[in-house]
Amino acid sequence: MRSAAIVAGQEILVAMRNRWVLATALIMAALALSLTFLGSAPTGQVGVDALDVVVVSLSSLTIFLVPLIALLIAHDAIVGEAERGTLPLLLSYSIGRRQVIIGKFLGHVFVLTIATVVGYGAAAAALALAGTEMLGQSLTAFAGMIGSSILLGSVFIAIGYLISALVHDRATAAGIAIAVWLFLVLVFDMVLLGILVVDQGRTITAGALDALLLLNPTGVYRLFNLTGSGGVSQFAGMAGLAKTATWSSAALLTALTAWILVPLSLATLAFARREI
Hints:
about 280 residues, mainly alpha, about 80% helix, about 0% strand
């Protein structure tokens, strides 16, 4: 693990030199603060905590923003080094390919974690400075949103590594990464909705729908954050779904973890067979 830690440290240093951490944190903080102040008005009307509104708003933002940032970070992690000629040099230092993948993954997850905690933490800090009362349940939901956002980003970092390990040029990796983002973030839900409208409950049962939702990590993330807390599900309009939800929070977190491990394992296998 020492070799993996060295690689992780190198990735963190590169991200800091390139100002990836600062730029990502500033973008996330700016969007989080905007949504916080714009979304604070309805809280008195619907009777929910202000932080619950922030959780709903930031969950929707995360589904679009965090996967895109993660793929931008990770899509050229392997193929980019191969094109620059630095990958053979890295492997010459008695570092195994598995350690390279793990080290890069840990480094990139650390970068994304710092950006997410700082960026989204700014929203909670702004509410606290404004004197807004925040209930314990809402704070728990907010902490769960940040943690699951990091997990969702880790999923797409792992997917980015799999893409990077399979292709042979950065342009192809970038194109596939954007296609994956479009499919999982936008197309999948529209296709599923279209199928449900056409089926009208004749073939697809509630249990089958619950299983289909696990096929998309963004869907798992949405269910975890929008049905886990009473105040959040009320404001998100998912109170009914929260009462009948099949999957527990633990099961949804396990599903997100599986979404990390499977593509990361496949990326490790593909990298092990790649000719340098």
